[in-house]
Amino acid sequence: MDGIGTREAGLRKVSSHSSISEADDFDLSRLLDKPRLNIERQRSFEERSVSEFSISNTRGVDGSDSIYSPGAAVRSGFDTPASSTRHSFELHPMVADAWEALRRSLVYFRDQPVGTIAAYDHAAEEVLNYDQVFVRDFVPSALAFLMNGEPDIVKNFLLKTLHLQGWEKRIDRFKLGEGAMPASFKVLHDPVRKMDTLIADFGESAIGRVAPVDSGFWWIILLRAYTKSTGDLSLAETPECQKGMRLILTLCLSAGFDTFPTLLCADGCSMIDRRMGIYGYPIEIQALFFMALRSALVLLKHDEEGKEFVERIVKRLHALSYHMRSYFWLDFRQLNDIYRYKTEEYSHTAVNKFNVIPDSIPDWVFELMPTRGGYFVGNVSPARMDFRWFALGNCVAILSSLATPEQSMAIMDLIEARWEELVGEMPLKISYPAIEGHEWRIVTGCDPKNTRWSYHNGGSWPVLLWLLTAACIKTGRPQIARRAIELIESRLQKDGWPEYYDGKLGRYIGKQARKFQTWSIAGYLVAKMMLEDPSHLGMISLEEDKLMKPLIKRSASWTCMGPERT
Ligand code: GLC
Question: What residue spans carry the region label Disordered (predicted)?
Answer without folding.
Answer: 1-22
